[in-house]
Write a structure and sequence with these properties.
The complex is a heterodimer of chains A (about 300) and B (about 250). By secondary structure, chain A is mostly beta strands. Chain A has one domain (about 5-280). Helices cover about 10% and strands about 55% of the residues of chain A. In chain A, strand 1 (about 25-30) and strand 2 form a beta hairpin. Chain B has about 250 residues and is an alpha/beta fold. In chain B, the strands form two sheets. A six-stranded mixed beta sheet of chain B has the order 6-7-8-3-9-10, with helices on both faces. In chain B, strands 2-1-4-5 form a four-stranded antiparallel beta sheet, covered by helices on one side. In chain B, helix 4 crosses helix 6. The chains are: A mainly beta (about 300), B alpha/beta (about 250). The interface of A and B includes residues 285, 290 and 300 of A.
Protein backbone atom coordinates (compact mmCIF):
# COMPACT_ATOMS: atom_id res chain seq x y z
CA UNK A 1 0.00 0.00 0.00
CA UNK A 2 1.27 3.46 -0.96
CA UNK A 3 4.30 1.82 -2.55
CA UNK A 4 5.63 4.73 -4.54
CA UNK A 5 5.97 8.49 -4.36
CA UNK A 6 3.32 8.74 -7.11
CA UNK A 7 0.89 6.69 -4.98
CA UNK A 8 1.51 8.82 -1.94
CA UNK A 9 1.08 12.10 -3.82
CA UNK A 10 -2.10 10.99 -5.56
CA UNK A 11 -3.65 9.73 -2.33
CA UNK A 12 -2.83 12.94 -0.54
CA UNK A 13 -4.31 15.01 -3.38
CA UNK A 14 -7.57 13.13 -3.70
CA UNK A 15 -8.24 11.91 -0.18
CA UNK A 16 -5.95 13.96 2.09
CA UNK A 17 -4.40 10.67 3.08
CA UNK A 18 -0.95 10.65 4.62
CA UNK A 19 0.03 7.20 5.81
CA UNK A 20 -2.43 4.44 6.59
CA UNK A 21 -5.99 5.69 6.97
CA UNK A 22 -7.72 5.54 10.31
CA UNK A 23 -10.95 3.54 10.30
CA UNK A 24 -12.43 1.63 7.43
CA UNK A 25 -10.81 1.92 4.03
CA UNK A 26 -10.40 0.37 0.64
CA UNK A 27 -7.66 1.53 -1.67
CA UNK A 28 -8.05 0.52 -5.29
CA UNK A 29 -4.93 0.74 -7.43
CA UNK A 30 -4.62 -0.20 -11.10
CA UNK A 31 -7.71 -2.43 -11.10
CA UNK A 32 -6.73 -4.26 -7.93
CA UNK A 33 -7.22 -3.92 -4.18
CA UNK A 34 -4.17 -2.30 -2.61
CA UNK A 35 -5.45 -2.41 0.93
CA UNK A 36 -8.71 -2.91 2.78
CA UNK A 37 -9.85 -2.64 6.36
CA UNK A 38 -13.25 -3.03 7.91
CA UNK A 39 -14.14 -1.90 11.39
CA UNK A 40 -16.64 -3.04 13.96
CA UNK A 41 -19.26 -0.75 12.49
CA UNK A 42 -18.27 -0.43 8.82
CA UNK A 43 -17.86 -3.55 6.75
CA UNK A 44 -16.28 -3.49 3.29
CA UNK A 45 -16.58 -6.50 1.03
CA UNK A 46 -15.57 -7.04 -2.58
CA UNK A 47 -18.22 -7.71 -5.18
CA UNK A 48 -18.09 -11.12 -6.79
CA UNK A 49 -20.07 -10.46 -9.96
CA UNK A 50 -18.34 -7.25 -11.08
CA UNK A 51 -15.63 -4.79 -10.08
CA UNK A 52 -16.37 -2.85 -6.92
CA UNK A 53 -17.20 -3.06 -3.25
CA UNK A 54 -20.13 -3.02 -0.86
CA UNK A 55 -19.88 -0.77 2.17
CA UNK A 56 -22.27 -1.54 4.98
CA UNK A 57 -22.56 0.88 7.87
CA UNK A 58 -24.31 -0.52 10.92
CA UNK A 59 -27.26 1.43 12.34
CA UNK A 60 -26.25 4.00 14.94
CA UNK A 61 -22.67 4.40 13.68
CA UNK A 62 -21.62 7.92 14.54
CA UNK A 63 -18.41 9.83 13.87
CA UNK A 64 -16.64 7.23 11.73
CA UNK A 65 -14.85 7.82 8.45
CA UNK A 66 -14.48 5.51 5.49
CA UNK A 67 -11.85 6.15 2.80
CA UNK A 68 -12.28 4.53 -0.62
CA UNK A 69 -9.81 6.24 -2.97
CA UNK A 70 -8.90 4.95 -6.42
CA UNK A 71 -5.57 5.54 -8.11
CA UNK A 72 -4.49 4.62 -11.61
CA UNK A 73 -0.77 4.79 -12.24
CA UNK A 74 -0.46 2.69 -15.41
CA UNK A 75 -1.48 3.95 -18.84
CA UNK A 76 -4.16 2.09 -20.76
CA UNK A 77 -6.35 1.09 -17.82
CA UNK A 78 -10.03 1.59 -18.47
CA UNK A 79 -12.46 0.43 -15.80
CA UNK A 80 -16.02 0.68 -14.58
CA UNK A 81 -16.30 0.16 -10.82
CA UNK A 82 -19.50 -0.27 -8.84
CA UNK A 83 -19.55 0.77 -5.19
CA UNK A 84 -22.73 0.39 -3.15
CA UNK A 85 -23.23 2.02 0.24
CA UNK A 86 -25.80 0.80 2.73
CA UNK A 87 -26.03 3.30 5.57
CA UNK A 88 -27.98 2.03 8.58
CA UNK A 89 -30.48 4.19 10.43
CA UNK A 90 -29.42 6.94 12.82
CA UNK A 91 -25.86 7.03 11.60
CA UNK A 92 -23.54 9.92 10.89
CA UNK A 93 -20.50 9.06 8.80
CA UNK A 94 -17.90 10.61 6.51
CA UNK A 95 -17.17 8.89 3.21
CA UNK A 96 -14.04 10.05 1.42
CA UNK A 97 -13.81 8.87 -2.17
CA UNK A 98 -11.80 10.33 -5.04
CA UNK A 99 -9.75 9.24 -7.99
CA UNK A 100 -6.28 10.17 -9.13
CA UNK A 101 -4.75 9.25 -12.48
CA UNK A 102 -1.05 9.43 -13.22
CA UNK A 103 -0.60 8.83 -16.93
CA UNK A 104 2.84 9.12 -18.50
CA UNK A 105 1.97 6.98 -21.51
CA UNK A 106 0.15 7.46 -24.77
CA UNK A 107 -2.82 5.24 -23.99
CA UNK A 108 -5.96 6.52 -22.34
CA UNK A 109 -6.63 5.90 -18.65
CA UNK A 110 -10.27 5.94 -17.65
CA UNK A 111 -12.13 5.40 -14.40
CA UNK A 112 -15.92 5.33 -14.29
CA UNK A 113 -17.04 5.08 -10.68
CA UNK A 114 -20.69 4.17 -10.20
CA UNK A 115 -21.72 4.85 -6.61
CA UNK A 116 -25.12 4.08 -5.18
CA UNK A 117 -26.09 5.16 -1.68
CA UNK A 118 -29.00 3.84 0.34
CA UNK A 119 -29.19 6.13 3.35
CA UNK A 120 -31.40 4.92 6.17
CA UNK A 121 -33.82 6.92 8.32
CA UNK A 122 -32.36 9.93 10.13
CA UNK A 123 -28.83 9.23 8.98
CA UNK A 124 -26.38 11.79 7.73
CA UNK A 125 -23.62 11.21 5.20
CA UNK A 126 -20.86 13.62 4.42
CA UNK A 127 -19.44 12.53 1.08
CA UNK A 128 -16.26 14.01 -0.39
CA UNK A 129 -14.97 13.17 -3.85
CA UNK A 130 -11.92 14.72 -5.51
CA UNK A 131 -10.66 14.06 -9.00
CA UNK A 132 -7.16 14.79 -10.20
CA UNK A 133 -5.00 13.90 -13.17
CA UNK A 134 -1.30 14.30 -13.86
CA UNK A 135 1.46 12.96 -16.07
CA UNK A 136 3.05 14.24 -19.24
CA UNK A 137 1.97 11.42 -21.57
CA UNK A 138 -0.35 11.98 -24.49
CA UNK A 139 -2.83 9.43 -23.16
CA UNK A 140 -6.13 10.90 -22.02
CA UNK A 141 -7.15 11.02 -18.38
CA UNK A 142 -10.87 10.42 -18.25
CA UNK A 143 -13.32 10.11 -15.36
CA UNK A 144 -17.06 9.57 -15.62
CA UNK A 145 -18.49 9.39 -12.11
CA UNK A 146 -22.07 8.43 -11.49
CA UNK A 147 -23.61 8.88 -8.07
CA UNK A 148 -27.14 7.84 -7.18
CA UNK A 149 -28.45 8.51 -3.68
CA UNK A 150 -31.68 7.43 -2.02
CA UNK A 151 -32.48 9.28 1.18
CA UNK A 152 -35.06 7.79 3.52
CA UNK A 153 -37.17 9.83 5.91
CA UNK A 154 -35.13 12.41 7.80
CA UNK A 155 -31.88 11.38 6.10
CA UNK A 156 -29.42 13.83 4.62
CA UNK A 157 -26.32 13.93 2.47
CA UNK A 158 -23.79 16.66 2.05
CA UNK A 159 -21.92 15.91 -1.13
CA UNK A 160 -18.76 17.84 -1.97
CA UNK A 161 -17.15 17.07 -5.28
CA UNK A 162 -14.19 18.76 -6.86
CA UNK A 163 -12.25 18.30 -10.04
CA UNK A 164 -8.92 19.76 -9.00
CA UNK A 165 -7.21 19.72 -12.42
CA UNK A 166 -5.72 17.48 -15.07
CA UNK A 167 -8.87 15.60 -16.18
CA UNK A 168 -9.15 15.72 -19.96
CA UNK A 169 -12.72 14.60 -20.17
CA UNK A 170 -15.44 14.06 -17.60
CA UNK A 171 -19.10 13.31 -17.76
CA UNK A 172 -20.65 13.46 -14.34
CA UNK A 173 -24.10 12.20 -13.45
CA UNK A 174 -25.60 12.73 -10.02
CA UNK A 175 -29.10 11.90 -8.87
CA UNK A 176 -30.46 12.22 -5.35
CA UNK A 177 -33.98 11.18 -4.39
CA UNK A 178 -35.21 12.72 -1.14
CA UNK A 179 -37.88 11.19 1.06
CA UNK A 180 -39.90 12.93 3.76
CA UNK A 181 -37.87 15.50 5.72
CA UNK A 182 -34.71 14.51 3.84
CA UNK A 183 -32.07 16.99 2.72
CA UNK A 184 -29.50 16.93 -0.06
CA UNK A 185 -26.77 19.51 -0.52
CA UNK A 186 -24.44 19.16 -3.49
CA UNK A 187 -21.41 21.41 -3.71
CA UNK A 188 -19.53 20.99 -6.95
CA UNK A 189 -16.18 22.60 -7.78
CA UNK A 190 -14.73 22.10 -11.20
CA UNK A 191 -11.68 23.40 -13.03
CA UNK A 192 -10.89 22.73 -16.67
CA UNK A 193 -7.91 23.93 -18.65
CA UNK A 194 -6.19 23.28 -21.97
CA UNK A 195 -8.73 21.69 -24.31
CA UNK A 196 -10.49 19.67 -21.62
CA UNK A 197 -14.21 19.05 -21.65
CA UNK A 198 -16.54 18.61 -18.69
CA UNK A 199 -20.22 17.89 -18.47
CA UNK A 200 -22.23 17.66 -15.30
CA UNK A 201 -25.80 16.46 -15.11
CA UNK A 202 -27.41 16.63 -11.72
CA UNK A 203 -30.87 15.94 -10.48
CA UNK A 204 -32.36 16.28 -7.05
CA UNK A 205 -35.83 14.78 -6.82
CA UNK A 206 -37.75 16.15 -3.86
CA UNK A 207 -40.35 13.44 -3.40
CA UNK A 208 -41.03 13.69 0.33
CA UNK A 209 -42.91 16.32 2.24
CA UNK A 210 -40.61 18.98 3.72
CA UNK A 211 -37.62 17.70 1.78
CA UNK A 212 -34.92 20.16 0.81
CA UNK A 213 -32.37 20.21 -1.96
CA UNK A 214 -29.59 22.59 -2.80
CA UNK A 215 -27.05 22.64 -5.60
CA UNK A 216 -24.06 24.95 -5.39
CA UNK A 217 -21.88 24.71 -8.46
CA UNK A 218 -18.75 26.75 -8.98
CA UNK A 219 -16.49 26.29 -11.95
CA UNK A 220 -13.55 27.85 -13.71
CA UNK A 221 -12.93 27.24 -17.41
CA UNK A 222 -9.49 28.28 -18.63
CA UNK A 223 -7.74 28.25 -22.02
CA UNK A 224 -9.95 26.59 -24.65
CA UNK A 225 -11.74 24.16 -22.34
CA UNK A 226 -15.48 23.61 -22.46
CA UNK A 227 -18.05 23.00 -19.74
CA UNK A 228 -21.72 22.14 -19.69
CA UNK A 229 -23.86 22.17 -16.54
CA UNK A 230 -27.38 20.85 -16.34
CA UNK A 231 -28.58 20.83 -12.72
CA UNK A 232 -32.25 20.07 -12.21
CA UNK A 233 -34.34 20.15 -9.06
CA UNK A 234 -37.77 18.57 -9.24
CA UNK A 235 -40.33 19.25 -6.54
CA UNK A 236 -43.02 16.59 -6.19
CA UNK A 237 -44.26 17.60 -2.74
CA UNK A 238 -44.16 20.45 -0.28
CA UNK A 239 -40.43 21.13 -0.49
CA UNK A 240 -37.69 23.69 -1.00
CA UNK A 241 -35.06 23.60 -3.72
CA UNK A 242 -32.32 25.97 -4.74
CA UNK A 243 -29.86 25.77 -7.63
CA UNK A 244 -26.97 28.17 -7.82
CA UNK A 245 -24.35 27.97 -10.59
CA UNK A 246 -21.44 30.38 -10.82
CA UNK A 247 -18.70 30.13 -13.40
CA UNK A 248 -15.58 32.10 -14.19
CA UNK A 249 -14.69 32.03 -17.86
CA UNK A 250 -11.16 32.74 -19.07
CA UNK A 251 -9.17 32.74 -22.30
CA UNK A 252 -11.02 31.08 -25.17
CA UNK A 253 -13.12 28.80 -22.96
CA UNK A 254 -16.80 28.08 -23.43
CA UNK A 255 -19.37 27.45 -20.71
CA UNK A 256 -23.02 26.53 -20.94
CA UNK A 257 -25.08 26.56 -17.80
CA UNK A 258 -28.64 25.29 -17.98
CA UNK A 259 -30.16 25.21 -14.49
CA UNK A 260 -33.69 23.86 -14.39
CA UNK A 261 -36.40 23.65 -11.78
CA UNK A 262 -39.58 21.65 -12.18
CA UNK A 263 -42.55 21.79 -9.81
CA UNK A 264 -45.19 19.09 -9.77
CA UNK A 265 -46.88 20.32 -6.60
CA UNK A 266 -48.28 23.72 -5.67
CA UNK A 267 -46.38 23.61 -2.37
CA UNK A 268 -43.02 23.23 -4.04
CA UNK A 269 -40.81 26.30 -3.65
CA UNK A 270 -37.94 26.24 -6.13
CA UNK A 271 -35.35 28.82 -7.09
CA UNK A 272 -32.53 28.80 -9.58
CA UNK A 273 -29.81 31.26 -10.46
CA UNK A 274 -26.82 31.07 -12.75
CA UNK A 275 -23.99 33.44 -13.58
CA UNK A 276 -21.03 33.25 -15.93
CA UNK A 277 -18.43 36.00 -16.08
CA UNK A 278 -14.77 36.76 -16.23
CA UNK A 279 -12.78 37.87 -13.20
CA UNK A 280 -13.88 41.44 -12.59
CA UNK A 281 -11.25 44.07 -13.25
CA UNK A 282 -11.95 45.82 -9.97
CA UNK A 283 -11.29 42.59 -8.07
CA UNK A 284 -7.81 42.36 -9.59
CA UNK A 285 -7.15 46.03 -8.93
CA UNK A 286 -8.22 45.73 -5.30
CA UNK A 287 -5.85 42.84 -4.64
CA UNK A 288 -3.05 44.67 -6.45
CA UNK A 289 -3.52 47.61 -4.08
CA UNK A 290 -2.90 45.10 -1.31
CA UNK A 291 0.49 44.22 -2.84
CA UNK A 292 -0.30 41.19 -5.03
CA UNK A 293 0.84 41.05 -8.64
CA UNK A 294 -1.90 40.72 -11.24
CA UNK A 295 -1.04 37.01 -11.72
CA UNK A 296 -1.06 36.33 -7.97
CA UNK A 297 -4.33 38.22 -7.63
CA UNK A 298 -5.90 36.04 -10.33
CA UNK A 299 -4.64 32.85 -8.65
CA UNK A 300 -5.92 34.00 -5.31
CA UNK A 301 -9.38 34.79 -6.68
CA UNK A 302 -9.60 31.41 -8.44
CA UNK A 303 -8.42 29.46 -5.39
CA UNK A 304 -10.94 31.23 -3.19
CA UNK A 305 -13.73 30.69 -5.70
CA UNK A 306 -13.03 26.96 -5.95
CA UNK A 307 -12.18 26.41 -2.26
CA UNK B 1 6.35 62.99 1.24
CA UNK B 2 3.99 62.90 -1.71
CA UNK B 3 4.43 65.35 -4.56
CA UNK B 4 2.16 65.74 -7.54
CA UNK B 5 3.67 67.89 -10.28
CA UNK B 6 1.57 69.36 -13.08
CA UNK B 7 -0.82 66.43 -13.28
CA UNK B 8 -3.08 66.41 -16.30
CA UNK B 9 -5.57 63.74 -17.20
CA UNK B 10 -7.75 63.82 -20.27
CA UNK B 11 -10.06 61.38 -21.99
CA UNK B 12 -10.96 61.19 -25.65
CA UNK B 13 -14.57 61.94 -26.45
CA UNK B 14 -16.24 61.77 -29.89
CA UNK B 15 -16.20 65.56 -30.07
CA UNK B 16 -12.64 66.03 -28.83
CA UNK B 17 -10.51 65.73 -25.73
CA UNK B 18 -12.09 66.24 -22.33
CA UNK B 19 -9.82 67.44 -19.51
CA UNK B 20 -10.59 65.68 -16.24
CA UNK B 21 -7.60 67.03 -14.30
CA UNK B 22 -5.90 70.24 -15.31
CA UNK B 23 -2.36 71.02 -14.21
CA UNK B 24 -2.68 69.96 -10.59
CA UNK B 25 0.39 70.37 -8.39
CA UNK B 26 0.29 69.47 -4.74
CA UNK B 27 2.68 68.38 -1.98
CA UNK B 28 1.60 66.42 1.08
CA UNK B 29 4.08 66.26 3.94
CA UNK B 30 4.55 63.12 6.02
CA UNK B 31 1.99 62.31 8.69
CA UNK B 32 -0.42 64.97 7.52
CA UNK B 33 -4.13 64.36 7.17
CA UNK B 34 -5.33 66.01 3.99
CA UNK B 35 -8.97 66.01 2.92
CA UNK B 36 -9.92 66.30 -0.74
CA UNK B 37 -13.39 67.75 -1.04
CA UNK B 38 -15.48 69.45 -3.67
CA UNK B 39 -18.43 68.84 -5.97
CA UNK B 40 -19.18 65.45 -7.52
CA UNK B 41 -17.37 64.89 -10.79
CA UNK B 42 -14.72 67.47 -9.93
CA UNK B 43 -11.78 65.04 -10.19
CA UNK B 44 -11.07 64.06 -6.56
CA UNK B 45 -11.27 60.30 -7.08
CA UNK B 46 -9.31 60.48 -10.34
CA UNK B 47 -6.52 62.36 -8.58
CA UNK B 48 -6.44 59.83 -5.73
CA UNK B 49 -6.41 56.94 -8.22
CA UNK B 50 -3.47 58.56 -10.00
CA UNK B 51 -1.51 58.44 -6.73
CA UNK B 52 -2.25 54.70 -6.35
CA UNK B 53 -1.52 53.98 -10.02
CA UNK B 54 -5.09 52.96 -10.80
CA UNK B 55 -5.20 55.73 -13.38
CA UNK B 56 -2.23 56.88 -15.47
CA UNK B 57 -1.93 60.67 -15.84
CA UNK B 58 -1.75 62.05 -19.37
CA UNK B 59 1.16 64.24 -18.29
CA UNK B 60 2.83 65.16 -15.01
CA UNK B 61 4.93 63.43 -12.36
CA UNK B 62 4.24 61.71 -9.06
CA UNK B 63 7.01 61.58 -6.48
CA UNK B 64 6.82 59.45 -3.36
CA UNK B 65 9.54 60.00 -0.78
CA UNK B 66 11.58 61.74 -3.49
CA UNK B 67 11.32 58.85 -5.97
CA UNK B 68 9.53 59.28 -9.28
CA UNK B 69 6.81 56.61 -9.25
CA UNK B 70 4.89 57.87 -12.31
CA UNK B 71 5.84 54.84 -14.38
CA UNK B 72 5.32 52.25 -11.62
CA UNK B 73 2.35 49.89 -11.43
CA UNK B 74 -0.17 49.44 -8.63
CA UNK B 75 1.60 46.49 -7.00
CA UNK B 76 4.94 48.27 -6.87
CA UNK B 77 3.35 51.33 -5.33
CA UNK B 78 1.52 49.15 -2.80
CA UNK B 79 4.84 47.58 -1.84
CA UNK B 80 6.30 51.07 -1.43
CA UNK B 81 3.71 51.86 1.23
CA UNK B 82 0.76 53.35 -0.63
CA UNK B 83 -2.72 51.99 0.09
CA UNK B 84 -6.17 52.79 -1.27
CA UNK B 85 -9.65 52.26 0.10
CA UNK B 86 -12.16 52.12 -2.73
CA UNK B 87 -15.35 54.14 -2.71
CA UNK B 88 -17.24 51.12 -4.03
CA UNK B 89 -15.21 48.06 -3.07
CA UNK B 90 -15.56 44.89 -5.13
CA UNK B 91 -17.07 41.70 -3.74
CA UNK B 92 -15.39 38.32 -3.95
CA UNK B 93 -17.24 35.02 -4.11
CA UNK B 94 -15.22 32.55 -2.10
CA UNK B 95 -12.87 34.97 -0.36
CA UNK B 96 -13.51 35.56 3.32
CA UNK B 97 -12.96 38.65 5.42
CA UNK B 98 -10.03 36.82 7.00
CA UNK B 99 -8.52 36.16 3.55
CA UNK B 100 -8.62 39.83 2.63
CA UNK B 101 -7.23 41.01 5.96
CA UNK B 102 -4.44 38.42 5.74
CA UNK B 103 -3.35 39.56 2.27
CA UNK B 104 -3.60 43.15 3.38
CA UNK B 105 -1.35 42.53 6.39
CA UNK B 106 1.04 40.76 4.03
CA UNK B 107 2.54 38.45 6.64
CA UNK B 108 1.05 35.12 5.63
CA UNK B 109 -0.88 34.49 8.81
CA UNK B 110 -2.92 36.92 10.80
CA UNK B 111 -4.14 36.03 14.28
CA UNK B 112 -7.80 36.26 15.14
CA UNK B 113 -6.93 38.88 17.75
CA UNK B 114 -5.30 41.12 15.15
CA UNK B 115 -8.22 40.67 12.79
CA UNK B 116 -10.55 41.51 15.65
CA UNK B 117 -8.66 44.74 16.32
CA UNK B 118 -9.03 45.91 12.74
CA UNK B 119 -12.69 44.94 12.50
CA UNK B 120 -13.59 46.51 15.84
CA UNK B 121 -12.18 49.81 14.59
CA UNK B 122 -14.78 49.81 11.84
CA UNK B 123 -17.58 48.61 14.10
CA UNK B 124 -17.66 44.92 13.11
CA UNK B 125 -17.40 41.88 15.37
CA UNK B 126 -14.75 39.36 14.30
CA UNK B 127 -16.82 36.41 15.50
CA UNK B 128 -19.63 37.37 13.14
CA UNK B 129 -17.59 38.37 10.12
CA UNK B 130 -14.16 36.74 9.99
CA UNK B 131 -15.21 33.62 8.12
CA UNK B 132 -17.91 35.23 6.02
CA UNK B 133 -17.39 35.54 2.31
CA UNK B 134 -17.12 39.07 0.99
CA UNK B 135 -19.95 38.42 -1.45
CA UNK B 136 -23.43 39.68 -2.19
CA UNK B 137 -24.68 38.42 1.19
CA UNK B 138 -23.04 41.46 2.82
CA UNK B 139 -24.65 44.88 2.68
CA UNK B 140 -22.93 47.81 0.98
CA UNK B 141 -22.12 49.31 4.38
CA UNK B 142 -20.58 46.06 5.63
CA UNK B 143 -18.41 45.71 2.54
CA UNK B 144 -17.32 49.32 2.91
CA UNK B 145 -16.30 48.80 6.52
CA UNK B 146 -14.38 45.64 5.60
CA UNK B 147 -12.63 47.66 2.91
CA UNK B 148 -11.52 50.21 5.47
CA UNK B 149 -10.37 47.40 7.78
CA UNK B 150 -8.08 46.09 5.00
CA UNK B 151 -6.44 49.51 4.80
CA UNK B 152 -5.92 49.53 8.56
CA UNK B 153 -4.41 46.02 8.33
CA UNK B 154 -2.14 47.17 5.52
CA UNK B 155 -0.67 49.72 7.92
CA UNK B 156 0.83 51.62 5.01
CA UNK B 157 2.79 54.86 5.09
CA UNK B 158 0.20 56.54 2.88
CA UNK B 159 -3.47 55.70 3.34
CA UNK B 160 -5.95 56.96 0.79
CA UNK B 161 -9.64 56.67 1.63
CA UNK B 162 -12.23 57.48 -1.01
CA UNK B 163 -15.39 58.62 0.75
CA UNK B 164 -15.01 56.25 3.69
CA UNK B 165 -18.23 57.50 5.25
CA UNK B 166 -20.42 56.60 2.28
CA UNK B 167 -22.94 53.92 3.16
CA UNK B 168 -21.95 53.36 6.77
CA UNK B 169 -24.15 53.99 9.76
CA UNK B 170 -23.73 56.79 12.24
CA UNK B 171 -22.31 54.61 15.00
CA UNK B 172 -19.66 53.14 12.70
CA UNK B 173 -18.93 56.59 11.34
CA UNK B 174 -18.12 57.83 14.84
CA UNK B 175 -15.76 54.86 15.34
CA UNK B 176 -14.18 55.58 12.00
CA UNK B 177 -13.46 59.23 12.74
CA UNK B 178 -11.98 58.19 16.10
CA UNK B 179 -9.73 55.73 14.26
CA UNK B 180 -8.59 58.40 11.80
CA UNK B 181 -7.87 60.69 14.74
CA UNK B 182 -5.84 57.99 16.51
CA UNK B 183 -3.74 57.22 13.43
CA UNK B 184 -3.17 60.92 12.87
CA UNK B 185 -2.31 61.65 16.48
CA UNK B 186 0.12 58.75 16.62
CA UNK B 187 1.86 60.08 13.48
CA UNK B 188 1.72 56.58 11.97
CA UNK B 189 0.73 57.49 8.44
CA UNK B 190 -0.02 60.17 5.94
CA UNK B 191 -3.71 60.19 5.11
CA UNK B 192 -5.58 61.49 2.11
CA UNK B 193 -9.30 61.28 2.69
CA UNK B 194 -11.87 62.17 0.06
CA UNK B 195 -14.86 63.34 2.02
CA UNK B 196 -17.78 65.71 2.19
CA UNK B 197 -18.34 65.17 5.91
CA UNK B 198 -17.84 68.15 8.16
CA UNK B 199 -16.63 65.87 10.97
CA UNK B 200 -13.85 64.42 8.79
CA UNK B 201 -12.97 67.76 7.23
CA UNK B 202 -12.57 69.21 10.71
CA UNK B 203 -9.84 66.60 11.45
CA UNK B 204 -7.74 67.72 8.49
CA UNK B 205 -4.43 69.57 8.66
CA UNK B 206 -5.24 70.79 5.21
CA UNK B 207 -8.35 70.83 3.05
CA UNK B 208 -7.98 70.82 -0.71
CA UNK B 209 -11.08 71.79 -2.65
CA UNK B 210 -11.11 70.24 -6.11
CA UNK B 211 -13.65 71.29 -8.68
CA UNK B 212 -13.77 71.10 -12.45
CA UNK B 213 -10.40 69.32 -12.53
CA UNK B 214 -8.48 71.99 -10.65
CA UNK B 215 -7.66 72.96 -7.10
CA UNK B 216 -9.94 75.86 -6.32
CA UNK B 217 -9.06 76.39 -2.65
CA UNK B 218 -6.50 75.14 -0.16
CA UNK B 219 -6.30 75.89 3.50
CA UNK B 220 -6.94 74.74 7.02
CA UNK B 221 -10.27 73.25 8.00
CA UNK B 222 -11.08 76.46 9.88
CA UNK B 223 -10.53 78.49 6.75
CA UNK B 224 -12.25 76.24 4.26
CA UNK B 225 -15.23 74.85 6.18
CA UNK B 226 -17.11 78.18 6.44
CA UNK B 227 -16.66 78.65 2.69
CA UNK B 228 -17.99 75.18 1.94
CA UNK B 229 -20.95 75.66 4.25
CA UNK B 230 -21.68 79.06 2.72
CA UNK B 231 -21.60 77.49 -0.77
CA UNK B 232 -23.92 74.67 0.16
CA UNK B 233 -26.61 77.03 1.49
CA UNK B 234 -26.86 78.88 -1.80
CA UNK B 235 -29.83 78.27 -4.02
CA UNK B 236 -29.61 76.86 -7.52
CA UNK B 237 -28.00 79.53 -9.72
CA UNK B 238 -30.29 78.71 -12.60
CA UNK B 239 -33.46 79.00 -10.57
CA UNK B 240 -32.32 82.23 -8.93
CA UNK B 241 -31.15 83.79 -12.17
CA UNK B 242 -32.58 87.24 -12.66
CA UNK B 243 -34.02 87.65 -9.22
CA UNK B 244 -35.47 85.80 -6.30
CA UNK B 245 -35.60 82.05 -6.09
CA UNK B 246 -38.72 80.52 -7.52
Amino acid sequence: MMDTEVDRELLEKIADLVGKPVGAFNIRKDCGCDGRQSTEHIEITGKTDKAGIDIRVKPGTVGETCHIPVIITKPGIEEVVYNDFYIGENSNVDIVAGCGIHNCGNQTSRHDGVHTFYVGKNSHVHYTEKHYGEGDGKGGKIMNPQTIVYLEEGASIQMETSQIRGIDSTKRYTKIVCGKDAEAVITERLLTHGDQVAESDMEIVLDGENSRGRVISRSVAQDSSQQLFKPLVTGNAKCFGHVQCDSIIMGAAKIRSVPEIAANCTEAQLIHEAAIGKIAGDQLLKLQTLGLTEEDAEDFILKGFLA
Amino acid sequence: MLELQHINYAVHEPDGELGILKDISLAVDDHRLVVFTGPNGGGKTTLAKIVMGLVKPTTGRILWNGEDITGLGITERAKMGISYGFQQPPRFKGLTVRDLLTIAAGNGKLSKDRCCQYLTKVGLCANDYLDREVDASLSGGEVKRIEIATILARNAQLMIFDEPEAGIDLWSFTRLTETFEQIHRAGRATMIVISHQERIISLADEVVVIGDGSISHRGSADEILPEILADTTGACPVLTKGGAAL
